[in-house]
Specification:
By secondary structure, the chain is of the alpha+beta class. It has a single domain, classed as 2,3-Dihydroxybiphenyl 1,2-Dioxygenase, domain 1 (Roll). Strands 2-3-4-1-5-8-7-6 form an eight-stranded mixed beta sheet, with helices on one face. Strand 6 and strand 7 form a beta hairpin. The longest helix has 12 residues.
Length: about 100
């Protein structure tokens, strides 16, 4: 089961620009893209995306060989699908220990 962690972290905020300004000022990120529901920031080693919405917590990106196969396997192990985007393909999973990650190919 080969997979890898990506350099992307996603958080949610009801006020994405306010959150982005904090990360720029306090942690040295640079805003690289602004869309109505998503602000993209880049740092030296990670990319931070702030999506408009209720906070899920930090979402780590995990690259897998097959999103549908990983999703099915993890659901059998007690993980819960938080958000499914089959057209991308990606799925947001919350594991039994509280970690949320975005499975992507």
């Amino acid at each position: 089961m080969a997979n890898s962690f990506g350099t992307d972290i996603l958080i949610q905020s009801k006020t994405p620009m306010k959150a982005a300004k904090f990360y720029v000022k306090e942690l040295g990120f640079e805003i690289t893209d602004k869309k109505p529901n998503m602000i993209s920031l880049h740092g030296n080693n990670i990319n931070l995306f702030i999506e408009r919405g209720p906070a899920l917590g930090p979402v780590l990106e995990v690259t897998v060989k097959s999103v549908p196969e990983a999703k099915a396997r993890l659901k059998k192990k007690g993980c819960r699908v938080m958000k499914d985007e089959p057209d991308f393909p990606r799925v947001y999973i919350k594991d039994p220990h509280g970690l949320i990650y975005n499975l992507t190919e």
